[in-house]
Design a protein that fits this description.
Elements lengths: L7 H5 L7 H25 L4 H6 L29 H17 L3 E8 L4 E7 H14 L5 H21 L15
Antiparallel strand pairs: 1-2
């Protein structure tokens, strides 16, 4: 479980009521992140810690297996690389930083099911914690999360640079639809 509880609705709650554009940018970045992330996971097809640690034949004589090891949290049944939570969190943080004009933004996110509230002083702090939580839970390797954050930045940059551009001769902004 990610303590930060990143979800689009959580992030959108810090936007002003008239913040339709950043909400749409968050939604588009989220959708594109899913497309890119799934494609990357199955292109690279990297194993997760649960498989790497418990595998009896790792192909490396310098490693020792531990067939009794289990992660602290349930592990998804898809390849590990790139880390999806890292990618999603970074894409959202980049969009929000662009909207607010700064990474420095104090906010709190709560998870009532475990009675935890986390307070952050920047979007990058929350994104880094979301990434690290997946490593600490035994669900990902560090390189999964690094790649996920890098891809999330690229997805957000693409959305911010290309979404809602004026349409040719109609003179209407796509956000008017």
């Amino acid at each position: 479980m990610t303590l930060t509880g990143w979800r689009i609705r959580d992030q959108a709650n810090c936007l002003p009521r008239d913040g339709r554009r950043p909400r749409r940018e968050l939604q588009i970045a989220s959708g594109r992140r899913v497309d890119k992330g799934i494609a990357s996971k199955y292109a690279y097809h990297r194993w997760r810690p649960i498989t790497a640690i418990t595998a009896t034949d790792q192909g490396n004589p310098n490693t020792t297996t531990d067939p009794t090891w289990v992660p602290l949290a349930n592990t998804a049944n898809d390849p590990s690389y790139p880390g999806a939570h890292a990618e999603f969190s970074q894409a959202a943080a980049t969009v929000l930083e662009n909207f607010f004009g700064t990474d420095a933004f104090t906010f709190s996110l709560s998870n009532p099911s475990v009675n935890i509230t986390r307070t952050f002083t920047s979007f990058s702090q929350a994104t880094n914690e979301a990434s690290e939580s997946r490593i600490f839970a035994g669900q990902h390797f560090q390189y999964d999360q690094n790649a996920g954050q890098a891809q999330g930045s690229r997805v957000a940059a693409s959305v911010l640079g290309n979404a809602f551009q004026r349409l040719g001769h109609h003179g209407r902004d796509r956000s008017d639809r």
